[in-house]
Design brief:
Oligomer: heterotrimer
Mean pLDDT of chain A: 78
Structural class of chain C: alpha+beta
Largest interface: B-C, 40 and 30 residues
Distance between the termini of chain C: 51 Å
Number of domains of chain A: 2
Shape of chain C: elongated
Chains: A alpha/beta (400), B mainly alpha (372), C alpha+beta (542)
Largest sheet of chain A: 9 strands, mixed
Number of domains of chain C: 3
Chain lengths: 400, 372, 542
């Protein structure tokens, strides 16, 4: 029995001695929801933390002082790490980043290759989770983005990330990229990086005031806009929404989007909602020259019909399907031609070649950008309209 | 030796726990990139051959453990010495695994806690459980294998649900040819985890069903090999080979990717629990084998007497075995497999096999002669 | 009916008297009975004196002198203990027959000896034994039998007239089954035995009665099905019971404490139940029951951990429902054990593992709380334990008041005053409710105690501490044995056949074989386990 007692005693002694090294109280932490990284004019790096004021977010009775739900603290330094360290001095409680869900990087900084520097820091810190989304602030600095007060969803960062996820699903004009996606795109040789942009629309100054969320029509709101294209870890250009959508089609990440097709001369008379899409990319090597074949399979339903077409006629549906296929093809072609022009393989065709023809890829690897620019790409779109909505024909058709 | 009996199922359980203990932490075979599964498969087949050798030796001396039959094969003094080296080897692996575990837990979860405390608590737990006897360890193993299987099932189900699984991460197959696969499999995957079956040569005599040894051992080996392949490939499918290659704890990174709805996220605890449990059994089995071997060699009647001092040595050496994690990992990946694992897992058993086969032949011939 | 049963008991108990009886008689002798073990004399007065000297001046001793016949003068005396005897029986079957007018003729006319005449022809009590030794007689007297001395006969007639007031058979209070039988054990062993006997009408069922406790001389019955129960285990139970060396045995709890396998464990290794159907079922499965006179709780051994999660109701419900409820019980037990500690670990160490929305809510709640999470949880748990204890021992009416005050004070006021957070109240309350789902009260208690240990582990090392604590706990459970049976069976060691009544309850038709844990063909190395864990050795195991 003494052995047993000795065991318990020693265990409890060590437990008491060891005493909670890593323990910390939840109330003593500043929960960071977003980080913004800017480059100042003097070359220093400015790091901003958006910290959640928990009691303001939950609206606890008594605890709420009517303060803003988030506060932004920032500081600058020669390196990101130094700046972050300095910024923690300003924050009242220790920084707690695991709940980070947004990283905003200044457009200017990204153009100078700042993304890679940032990500290196993220990869090392065990407290940082790699699920946070990465975005580029377009036309403004990252800090201002974090400072915008957003209505409805109180924490700006959360608002943006949920919005992004929804946007990817319903429009396909944006692509959610988290830190892991960015890292793997940056390290991959057969794929270039694209990151969504974010900007402030409306009055920037007014958007940062608390009154902004008290109005039914806010003065300044955050808007997700455009897709930044990277080459060699540097931001080189922006894609517009149409081109972004083309990329999303090729990546097979479209879940739901609306496309308009022509009817009786009206170019946007019929709106078709995509319900499902699937992209299959095949690479072929002919005469030592790679080519890419993209097959898109789309299934959708009629969303809106503003012309007199008779959809009880199967032929009409077939016609519309053909028009839709052309429309999608056009979208994709525009994206591809833009990418080829800039010599950036944002579609990951290089990866496809690597996966399907690993031996040939070794030869192309070194000058893939140039090869991509004049790559032979064929696109097949198979559009299917499965459903016509709750009714078959439009009012215009019935009037006739 | 304790007078204990373990059932074939418990033996199976211990094999699976020992093998999974490693697979949870690292993804073996990732040196072969997305062809890891081929490397593991190769390593596994090597492991099967090794286990055939071990079980052949066991069947020659079904009542004895490795340190007991070594003197019978190699002669009293040399056998004793090799047996002593084996005991040290088991303790050394236990030490290394303990260090692996401590480093991982410190970096992943408890950045401010000293490594010593983490290791100390683990060692205390191991001392308690082993002092209750090997039977208790194996019964505890049965319980926790069920738990780990359950966690594994849940996690893999969630992986599939989360839509993070991308099968194209497995392509291309054999993009670099066979060379990287073979060099990843031998000696690394062969010796870690499959060659570690050598530790069971100490425990085999406890089995209550001698005929089952070979069958259960092989089933356990193949089953755990399949699980390791599955786990590794799941990590690669979720994370992509680049991240798996770089991550210190791929399973944790993969699980943190799970996000279903707004609520089923941040399930890292599952990875951490699997890590603690898996490592516990792995270290405990090695320490037990080492302590048992030592107590046999020095003719100590109750191995429990040696448990505490040896565990203190293991604890202290695990903390001081390397200055930092990089040094430790380098040793583990480059030096240990070639110069430590290979001799103990492959060369010496092979030598023993050759000697016993020759001895059997000679004695058989003599018998024949005497008959004539 | 009662008489019939008690008679049976005596008869069945007779084989055991060789090993059971010797000791008590010697013990009684040592207990300062200056007269020692006397043999009865022919003289009535001497016999009376022997009884009175030993039993002494006690008001509940009833002495009734009789004159059986005046010519020749045959005197007699009947002793009994007030309250223990059935007065009606004594009056009708002893006194009335002995004082009957026609008796004289019988006494005179018949040729056989007086002793035989009285025993065989006169006494109409349905069980009469003759005894020559004083201490056995006194034991019988103190058990509620009546003693008759006749002048000139050096033996005592012991008449089984046990009676007196018992609590009637009622519905069990601690184990309630909705569809099951409603009878529960009471404090009388003979009635308890009859309740079991009524369910299993098999001659295989044996009751061995021994007397335990140097002073209390409590009847303890070892009950088993011969041929089904493992004979070695039965012998082990016998041996352990015979080793008991205490003054009084007042309840089955003390028997359990004295014969359990390991002295230091928080976990019960014997099941105690007040339901005859549970005992009958266990006996049929090959387990052994120990019935202690004076307690409505019967002990069952060997039992496994899973046994404590089975309620009698499980077998009266559909198997699907029972299985689900059983799983629920295991989950609830885990919650009761780990609830607060996991919460503490999350709040103090692993804030990154809480979903973001929840972490914000929790952070907001905790903003004004003056204590760290561990202290807060500890205060709440202790308060809850105090409330529970207060409510339990109070008269029912006050008990309700206690719970109302408790609910108001803890639930409402403490949260509003900002002393504890609402989330902590939810966790502690949820844990408390979860702990009530365990059918076995004594197992729920172990979870309650271990919960505090787990909380300390969680507060010092977070999830790591809890996981290691759990490994130690499972290893401890795996090291336990209940009369040779591994405690964690059928999970560890894994026994496929017994899974049919482990975590799940398979339909009855699918269970062709009996549980193999406790019967003769037990594959597990029971014998070794028995030797390793005898109570005498528990003192020096690690």
């Amino acid at each position: 029995m003494p052995k047993w007692i000795a065991f318990v005693l020693s265990l409890s002694t060590f437990l008491i001695l060891s005493g909670c090294w890593s323990a910390v109280e939840l109330k003593d932490l500043s929960i960071v929801s977003a980080i913004g990284i800017d480059k100042l004019d003097n070359g220093d790096i400015n790091v901003s933390f958006q910290v959640i004021n928990a009691s303001e977010v939950t609206g606890q009775q008594g605890a709420s002082r009517g303060a803003s739900p988030t506060s932004v603290f920032s500081s600058s330094g020669k390196t990101i790490f130094e700046a972050a360290r300095k910024a923690t001095k300003n924050v009242p409680k220790p920084i707690f980043p695991p709940h980070l869900n947004l990283v905003v990087i200044n457009e200017q900084f990204a153009k100078e290759g700042g993304l890679l520097k940032t990500l290196d820091l993220f990869g090392r810190d065990n407290e940082l989770r790699t699920n946070a989304q990465v975005m580029i602030s377009k036309g403004t600095d990252a800090k201002s983005i974090l400072m915008v007060q957003s209505p409805v969803e109180r924490v700006t960062a959360e608002k943006i990330t949920t919005k992004m996820e929804n946007l990817e699903k319903i429009s396909g004009e944006n692509i959610v990229m988290d830190i892991d996606d960015v890292t793997s795109a940056l390290t991959s040789k057969g794929k270039e990086l694209i990151v969504s942009g974010i900007q402030i629309s409306g009055d920037k100054e007014a958007g940062q005031k608390k009154e902004n969320i008290q109005q039914s029509k806010p003065n300044g709101i955050l808007e997700i806009n455009g897709t930044a294209v990277f080459k060699d870890e540097k931001l080189i250009d922006w894609l517009n929404e149409e081109e972004s959508k083309g990329v999303t089609w090729v990546l097979g990440r479209i879940r739901s989007t609306i496309d308009n097709v022509e009817c009786n001369g009206d170019p946007d008379a019929i709106a078709i909602e995509t319900l499902k899409s699937n992209a299959n990319i095949q690479s072929m090597i002919k005469n030592d020259k790679p080519s890419i074949q993209i097959t898109i399979q789309q299934e959708g339903s009629l969303g809106e019909v503003n012309c007199g077409k008779d959809f009880s006629d199967p032929q009409a549906i077939l016609d519309t399907e053909k028009l839709l296929a052309d429309e999608i093809k056009k979208t994709i072609e525009s994206a591809i031609s833009t990418a080829q022009e800039k010599q950036v393989d944002i579609f990951g065709f290089g990866d496809v070649v690597y996966r399907q023809h690993p031996d040939s890829w070794k030869k192309y690897e070194s000058n893939w950008s140039e090869m991509f620019a004049d790559l032979d790409i064929t696109i097949h779109v198979q559009a299917h309209i499965r459903l016509t909505g709750m009714k078959i024909n439009s009012f215009q058709h019935q009037k006739k | 030796m304790e007078k204990i009996k373990i059932t074939p199922f418990q033996f199976f359980t211990l094999i699976v726990l020992l093998q999974l203990g490693s697979a949870i932490v690292i993804s073996p075979g990732v040196a072969a990139k997305q062809d890891a599964w081929l490397a593991i498969l190769l390593g596994l087949s090597g492991g099967v051959v090794l286990f055939l050798i071990y079980s052949y030796l066991y069947h020659q001396f079904p009542e004895l453990s490795l340190t007991e039959y070594l003197p019978k094969i190699l002669g009293k003094h040399l056998g004793w010495f090799i047996g002593f080296l084996y005991s040290l080897y088991f303790l050394y692996i236990g030490t290394r695994v303990l260090r692996d575990f401590g480093d991982l837990l410190v970096t992943a979860i408890f950045p401010e806690t000293p490594l010593f405390i983490i290791s100390l608590l683990m060692v205390l737990t191991i001392v308690y459980v082993i002092s209750l006897g090997f039977e208790v360890l194996s019964r505890t193993g049965e319980f926790y294998l069920l738990l780990l299987m359950f966690i594994g099932f849940v996690v893999n189900f969630l992986f599939l649900m989360s839509g993070e699984v991308e099968l194209e991460n497995f392509l291309p197959i054999l993009g670099e040819g066979w060379m990287p696969v073979v060099s990843a499999a031998f000696p690394r995957v062969l010796t870690f985890p499959f060659g570690e079956m050598i530790v069971f040569t100490m425990i085999l005599p406890y089995l209550n069903n001698r005929k089952a040894v070979l069958k259960v051992g092989l089933i356990g080996l193949v089953f755990s090999g399949a699980l390791i392949i599955f786990a590794t490939m799941m990590n690669i499918a979720v994370l992509g080979i680049d991240i798996v290659d770089r991550a210190t704890f791929p399973l944790l990174s993969a699980i943190s990717k799970i996000r279903i709805g707004e609520f089923l996220e941040r399930l890292d605890a599952l990875a951490v629990i699997s890590l603690i449990v898996g490592m516990f059994f792995k270290i405990a089995i090695f320490i037990y084998a080492g302590v048992l071997g030592t107590s046999i060699l020095f003719k100590v009647d109750k191995y429990q007497k040696l448990l505490m001092p040896i565990c203190i040595i293991v604890l202290i050496s695990s903390v001081s075995i390397a200055e930092n994690i990089s040094e430790h990992l380098r040793e583990g990946l480059e030096i240990v497999p070639k110069y430590i694992h290979m001799p103990f897992q492959v060369y010496i058993p092979l030598l023993l096999l050759v000697i016993t086969v020759i001895k059997n032949k000679v004695s058989g011939n003599q018998k024949d002669k005497s008959k004539n | 009916m009662r008489l019939k049963n008690s008679k049976k008991t005596q008869q069945i108990s007779s084989p055991s008297e060789q090993n059971g009886k010797k000791k008590p008689s010697q013990l009684l002798l040592n207990e300062g009975l200056e007269a020692g073990n006397n043999y009865f004399k022919k003289s009535l007065d001497q016999n009376k004196k022997i009884i009175k000297d030993i039993v002494g001046e006690t008001s509940d001793l009833i002495e009734h002198e009789l004159v059986l016949s005046s010519d020749p003068l045959i005197k007699g005396v009947v002793f009994s203990i007030n309250g223990l005897v059935d007065k009606q029986q004594v009056g009708q079957f002893i006194l009335k027959t002995l004082l009957d007018d026609k008796l004289k003729e019988k006494l005179v006319s018949s040729k056989s000896s007086l002793l035989q005449k009285i025993e065989k022809q006169i006494l109409t009590v349905n069980e009469v034994t003759l005894e020559t030794e004083s201490d056995k007689t006194i034991h019988a007297l103190l058990s509620g039998k009546s003693i008759l001395f006749i002048d000139g006969i050096d033996q005592a007639f012991i008449c089984a007239t046990i009676g007196g007031e018992w609590r009637s058979v009622e519905e069990p209070t601690a184990e309630i089954a909705i569809r099951g039988p409603k009878d529960g054990f009471i404090e009388s062993m003979s009635i308890n035995i009859s309740l079991i006997r009524r369910r299993i009408k098999s001659p295989k069922m044996k009751f061995e009665v021994i007397q335990l406790g140097k002073v209390s001389q409590t009847n303890v019955a070892i009950t088993y099905m011969k041929g089904i129960a493992n004979a070695k285990v039965v012998q082990e139970v016998r041996d352990r019971l015979n080793k008991i060396d205490v003054d009084e045995i007042l309840s089955s709890a003390s028997v359990e404490e004295l014969i359990q396998d390991k002295a230091f464990t928080l976990f019960p290794t014997m099941l105690s139940t007040e339901r005859p159907d549970v005992v009958a079922n266990s006996l049929a499965e090959g387990r052994i029951a120990v019935i202690v006179d004076g307690t409505p709780f019967v002990l069952i051994a060997p039992v496994t951990f899973s046994q404590f999660f089975k309620s009698a109701e499980d077998y009266y419900q559909r198997p699907e429902i029972s299985s689900l409820i059983r799983i629920l019980r295991y989950i609830a037990f885990t919650l009761a054990l780990l609830g607060p500690s996991l919460f503490i670990a999350l709040l103090m160490f692993h804030q990154d593992l809480i979903p973001t929305t929840l972490v914000i809510t929790l952070a907001a709640q905790r903003e004004g709380i003056p204590f760290p999470a561990f202290i807060e949880a500890f205060i709440m748990e202790v308060t809850f334990e105090i409330l529970r204890e207060a409510g339990l021992r109070m008269p029912r009416a006050i008990g309700q008041a206690v719970s109302i005050v408790g609910a108001l004070v803890i639930g409402q006021a403490a949260v509003e005053a900002g002393i504890v957070s609402a989330a902590m109240v939810i966790v502690v309350a949820g844990t408390a409710i979860a702990s009530f789902t365990t059918p076995a009260y004594n197992l729920a208690v172990s979870a309650r105690i271990l919960r505090f240990g787990m909380m300390i582990l969680a507060a010092t090392m977070g999830l790591y501490g809890v996981t290691l604590g759990l490994i130690v706990l499972i290893a401890h459970l795996a090291s336990l044995r209940s009369f040779g049976t591994p405690y964690l069976a059928p999970f560890a060691p894994f026994i496929p056949e017994d899974q049919k009544d482990g975590l799940f309850r398979f339909p009855l038709w699918s269970r062709k074989k009996k549980s193999i844990l406790s019967n003769e063909n037990n594959p597990l190395d029971t014998e070794k386990g028995l030797n390793a864990t005898q109570p005498s050795e528990t003192g020096d195991t690690k």
